[in-house]
Structures are given as structure tokens and as C-alpha cells.
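ERR on first pass: missing label on line 2. Operator R.T. fixed the label and resubmitted. Corrected input:
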Amino acid sequence: METGTQRAIPAIPKEELLQMYEQMLRIRIFEEQVNELYTSGKMPGLAHLYIGEEAVAVGVCRALRREDYITSTHRGHGHCLAKGAAVNQMFAELLGKAAGYCHGKGGSMHIADPETGNLGANAIVGGSTAIAVGAALSAKMRGTNQVVVCFFGDGAFGQGVLYEAMNMAALWKLPVIYVCESNMYGEYTATREAAAGEVLARPQACGIPVKEVDGQEVRAVFAAAKEQVERARRGGGPAFLICHTYRFRGHHVGDVNRSSYRSAEEEEAWIRERDPVRLLGLFLIRQRLADASALEKIDQTIRAEIAAGVQFALDAPYPEPGEVTQNVYP
Amino acid sequence: MRELTFGQAIKEALVEEMRRDPTVFIIGEDVAEAGTVFKVLSGLVDTFGRERVIDSPISEAGVTGLGVGAAMTGMRPVVDIMFGDFITLAMDQIVNQAAKVHYMSGGKLRVPLVIRTTMGATRRSAAQHSQSLYAWLAHIPGLKVVLPSTPADAKGLLKSAIRDDSPVVFFEDKMMYQVKGPVPEAEYTVPLGVADVKRSGTDVTIVATSSMVQVALEAAARLEGDGISVEVVDPRTLMPLDKSALVESAKKTGRVIVVDEGYEQYGVTAEIAAVIAEGAFDHLDAPVRRMGAMNVPVPFSPVLEDQTVPTAAAVAGAAKQLCGRA
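pass 2 clean. output:
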């Protein structure tokens, strides 16, 4: 096992770093707006915010090509945006509008965008782990050289289909990367109370190589993902990447009383010391790759883009009632 | 016309569709060299190789999910699940994934997946290898469910299922694999959603599915001697269901028995009886009679098991009763 943070991270060109900063910030501000829309009663349903975990989606997706596939989770807004989704259609979907990615039929937990290789967010924990193997087998059979990334949370360690899927991926050397966002809690239960033994031993038992990285350091995530993706693209088979991260907010927006499963001190320490957006910003400034005013300008640009996206979605029409029976069958 | 067994007809459909479309492949437990436990696919791997006839681990959920992912990305997988009882292991992948992807994505993604599996009791295989669980799937919007009853139908329906852009679950009666029947040599398909009148009659309609079609035809032959003219209608697919064909036959005869090998409670017989009651109420001379499998786990002992499935004698008896001849 390699531990990404203990090794020197290869230099990443300034332009790429700035793009990663911008992408992480877009996810952050997007999610803050989701919180706002939800708490002000404009967004129906459920909202599982990605705030705190931005470096995972951005670092991993930066290692992918547009035509590569991802599968996502109930906490999937970050994955969709990092893979190239547009904020307008994202917000529209979250509000159940016809202009949304799924014409309002999927909502927050089911955004799919085949144009950017996003095979869809999945609201069943571990539900896409086998779908990802199928997409990888398909890529291999069609000879397209595509790689598949399966995002999932540590809660999926409790789902049997994950092991069925990893076993097949390893047997047939399929180009799929299992990216575990280990944020320490599955809903309201600590991972240590739900997963016995050493979780990395599980993919290793299938002969799948693993990497472990600090999921708050986007450069480390990118470096590890890049190696694994390139290896998979060369025909090297599946890989497993565990990213240690933290959900800055609750399991969903309504999860406000979290003292039963984690302390305010723990949350504050992560937010203060391990904010992935701030960590990259500090790095950029210390390395003299950007100054505070340059980052401020990015901030302003993104805020304007997000504000326009929210307005687009608020103004967009709902689906026609007759659409309810469309798309049950092709 | 030449005759093929039910199993040969299934295999011929797969061979033709795999030749026709390079995106079609088969995956499942023991499908390659073993040719499945029922030997239905014997030799297929020699024709198409292990790249397209893939032996899988015993992982029904994983293999079905793999089929969903492959189908979403340009392939047309045929997933083989050895016993219909084992679809329970894959239910999340079938119900929450395969059936939902097209709708949830607003029509952007498609899942042209076929799941081939089996059904039927009286093979002395006891409670976990004998169930006919298609009603579970016919309950789910987004899935199509096929129940062929003859070799010719099996071939034509399977070809349609493979070409369909929806997830289709195809249930084969494992007791029928050796049954022979005429199968045209020329290329043909049987559309999903079109019932077939297997025997024309005027006094009573027996709507029968899969394994029960032969039972119904045998009952009809017996009843002929009693002067009762029986129409046997086979819906062939539960979803889509050819409601108008069922209603038309009910209107014609005024008496209907629905016979199916799934459990009677909350099952196919109930749904079809309701469709007929709603569509032909004014034409019915009696309430629609339902005959499904007995509501017990399928027992092992032949003496016990044979009681659980409708027989030709029982169906004929019910028909006589319905016609006031009992």
C-alpha cells in the first residue's frame, strides 16, 4: 500500500491548480446555495451536501477524460459538477424543473449526464458498484479505452454487492477505480462501529491495489487518481483509492443535532484546519502561484455564475403534468 | 414444419441475435463450457468464445448490476440467472436500478438488458428452486416480463426481448426445455404485448401462462368430450399485457378461469381477473375463477408437491362447475 501524503506530490502546472481551485469553489458555493434553497423552502425533498469533500471529486475527475464514466452517490452534486455538469441544469433538477438534467424526474439524488460520462447518482448505498463494473466491461468489449470511476462512501462497506463487484473487476482486469470517500460516518453511525477490521484489506483480498490519501489535499488526490487511472487505461485492471475526508455538514440538511454521533469540537477542528478549498488557496499563495486578489476574483466570478444558475432554476417552468407517464419505457 | 425443443429454440434465438448484433453477450453462472445446468446453451461458447459467453461467479446481484452498467453504455447483455428463485438476490439491481434508470434520467439513459431465468415446480427441487416469482417483477413499472409457452413463442419473444430497449425479464419453464414444437426456419420475431389464442372456443375462456398453457390445452381436450368448447388464451407477456385480447375472449365466452403457476395470493391470476372484471363485467355469467399455485412454500415430497400446482383435471373440473355441468 502506498500512502500518497507521505510522498512528494508531483508538480502540477499552475493553470491546472487554478482550475482545480475554481472547481472546488464552484462546488462549495453551489452547495451553500443548495442549503439556502432548501432551508428557505424552495427545494423539495432531501439535500445531502458535499461541503468539506470537494477535493475528492475534483482531484479524481481531473484525472479523467470527458468520455470516461463515473457513477455517483446520494451525496453526488460534487461529482456531477467536477465531471463537467452545468450549474443551471443542476439547480433546475434540484428544484424539479423541466430544464433539469433529468427533466425533474430524478432530483438531487439521481442526476445523470451521459454527455459528461456521468452514469448517474444512486440513492442506494453501494447501488452503483456493480453498474460501474458493467460499464468497465462494456468499455473493454467495445475497445474504447474508457475508464470508470465508482464513487461511494464508507457506508457501502456494509453492502455485499461491493464485494461481488470488486471480485469481478479483479477477475476480469476491468478498468474501474473504486474511490471510497471515507468521511468517518455512514449517516449517523461512526464507521468504526460499522466496519470490522482493516477496510483496505477487503479490496486487497481480491488482489486490487490500494492507495490511501488525505482527501482534503486535492493535489494528493489528483496524483493518486492519475496513477491509478493511467494504469487502468493501460489494461492494468481495477484499483481502489480511499480518500480520508469529512462531511462538514450533517448527513442531510435537516441533520442539525449531531451531538449524538460527533462533537462540535471535532467539526470545528476539521473546518478550521482541514478545509480543502482553503488548503489549496493557501498553497497557491505560499507558492506565489496566485495572490489573494486573484483568488478573490475567482470567488466573485463563481458567485455570479451560481447566482445566475439559481435564478435560472427559479424562473424555469415545472414539467407538464402529462410528462409523468413519459420515459417509463423508451 | 421442423420441430425444435423449447431449449433449442432459446439457443437458436441467442445464436441469431449474437450473429446479428455484436453488442449482444451472455453472462451468468455456468453458461460457457457447461452450457448452463439445463444444457440449454451447450456449444454456444464454441461459436462465440469466452469473450461473449462469460462464466460468472455466483453473484446474482453483482452480475445483474454488471448487466445494467453494460446496457447503459452501449451493450445488450443477456444475464442468465439459473433459478428464478435467485432473482430475489438481485432485486435491488432489477427493481431499483434497471427499472428506474431510464425514467430517473429523464429518458437520457437506456437499459437494453435481458435477464433470462426459470420458473416452475414439480421438479422435486423443494422450496428454494421451484418458485414462479414473475408477479414480483410485473409489479414494477419500467420492467417488461415475458412468459413463453411454446418453442416457437420462446424463440420469437426472446429475439424481441434482446432487441427491446427496456430491461426485460424472460422466464422459462424448466420443465419445458425438452418439449418439442414446430418452429419456422425463416427469420421471425414475436412482438411483446400480443396475446395468442392457443385454442378457439365458445363456452369458457381459460387464460393460461407459461407452464399452464399445456395444462389448459389438456383440460380443453378433456372438456371437448363433455361438449364444452374451451378457448385458451396465452398473454405471452405480463408486461406489456394485451388487455384487449383477454377482455375480448371474456366477452365472447362469458366465463373465465385464469390459471398460473405463481402463488395465487396477490398474484398474476388476481391482476388478470381484475382486468377482465373491469373490461367485460356486463358480459360475464359468473365471477372470474382464479387457479394459482397453492399458497405454501413448495414442498419436496412428490405427494405433497403435486398438490400445489393446478392440474388439467382440476382445471377441467373448475370449467365444468363454471358451465353448470359439475
